[in-house]
Amino acid sequence: MALLTLTLGQVLAVGLTTLLLYTISYLLYNVFLHPLRAYPGPLIMRATRWDHSIRHMRGTLPFDVLALHKRYGPVVRIAPDELAFADPRAWKDIMGHKGGGGNNAGHEEDMLKYDKFYRPVESVPRDIVNAGREEHALLRRTMAHGFSDRSMREQQPLIQGYIDLLIRRLRENSGDGGHKVDMAAWYNYTTFDVIGDLAFGESFGCLDNSDYHPWVKAIFEVARAGTVFQCLAHYPVVVKLMLALIPSSFKEEREKHMQMTLEKLKRRMEAGKERADLVEGLLKRADEWGLTLENLQANSAILIIGGSETTATLLSGVTYLLLTNPEAMKKLTREIRGAFQSEEEIDFPSVSTLPYLLACLDEALRMYPPVPTGLPRVVPRGGANIAGSYVPEKTVVAVHQWAMYHNDAHFKDPFVYHPERWLGDPAFVDDHKDAFQPFHLGPRNCIGKNLAYIEMRLILARVLWNFDLRIAEDSLDWMGRQRVFNLWEKGRLHAYLTPAARQWRGRGSARRKIRYIDPRAIRH
Ligand code: HEM
């Protein structure tokens, strides 16, 4: 027994010593011999991925990356095998088409999406966002039809219907300015209902029930767990252990969620192929291209996640920024209320002619990008040139949007809301507008960009047409207190909404035309 104990003790000692030696040599290799050794960064980040992981799981990574760029320059080694870029040229070099004009023109291969980030667990189904190159090209072509100008025109009545309901609900819930309402929740209800209808043929009923649907709640819960799995993906054994330890109640919830998605999809399929929505193309080509029910399910689900939370986040952000910048709010309200005779005139084409509205949205996208962190790519065989630097193959590379847009090397007064910077104001002539890519660029850029702009313009214009907004005391620091777990953890954005004062115009008109008048004019 004593012999056995001794032997076990020895085995343990040898094991621990080996582990220690391995760890020390791994750290030394990363710092002194790794192909990225010449790139600057904090010692701990150059030696191990732990520090990066902790910041990602703590929700502070985008802010920390800005501090790192300030200290170390436009290229920082934020993990042993990962570089963060804060140089506008990096957008094209990392995200551009192969041979498409970036520094890698003529290169054989595109940068690949980094699987440990996009699919940290193998059971995550393949969809347009995480698919490999060929499958992606096929899905993109199939889905493009649903995002065409023609489809969007046909989708207009559906979208406007949900905005009508939003405005009605805000009237009912705001008590003529007496009750505060959570604008972040109302925007989420609206965009989830719109995209639910466009992707599954039915809304989630969030606006009807003034609450989140369980499907939507599940998405938020998964987003936070996602950051943990992205960090653990570097330790496959730990992931396996974690998956084995996941309580059965969680697995049942996941199963329920999948079942709910499947039922929604089946109902949409029963509605037929001819419907101008976002899955029409997928359903038409499903047989020809051998798309399985699982493919269809995963792609409808990703449309909802990609298309609703992002748009609602930006709407919440722009509302907060306007509430805390009264001059901009006044100017935008004047533009919207001066441009239309009646609310019915606010539609896709008319709302797209308002320059200050677009500038307000773009400035909000800069200060509060819905995708704030870097979405990592892997450098292909043979290495690549990124923003003038040679980067060896297999390096993980990304541009972190929030850090890029708050860097005063690219934007003057980066922490101040200045819509004028997008309208040719000479004060901002030195801004590097090419640093701004909230929808990314290249073959994997946002397919829903036009839809997003249309939705954001319509919703914001109609909210400001109908209401005067005032921020509630408890939301004054709404933006400053947030953290990022892939998505912004927004919290409640409370505001008081008072119906806008108007006077009748055009006596006897069949369509009752109304015109906004400045409330101060009534008092005087
Ligand atoms: C303000 C709103 C939005 C922002 C900031 C935004 C941003 C982005 C970004 C940065 C990507 C690239 C993702 C990556 O590289 O992995 C992306 C992709 C995508 N977005 Fe959006 N998005 C928005 C709204 C929408 C909307 C309304 C839809 C419609 C359903 C949508 C659907 C998609 C899809 C399907 C992809 C994947 C495209 C592909 O890989 O080919 N997005 N989006």
TrEMBL record:
Keyword Coiled coil found: yes
SUPFAM superfamilies on file: Cytochrome P450
Binding, heme: C446
Coiled coil: 262-299
Entry keyword Metal-binding: yes
Cofactor(s) of this protein: heme
MF term (GO), any: heme binding
Entry-linked InterPro entries: Cyt_P450, Cyt_P450_CS, Cyt_P450_E_grp-I, Cyt_P450_sf, Cytochrome_P450_monoxygenase
UniProt cross-references to Pfam families, sorted A to Z: p450 (PF00067)
Gene3D superfamilies from the UniProt entry: Cytochrome P450
Example GO BP: toxin biosynthetic process
Family from the record: Belongs to the cytochrome P450 family.
This protein's name: Cytochrome P450
Record organism: Dichotomopilus funicola
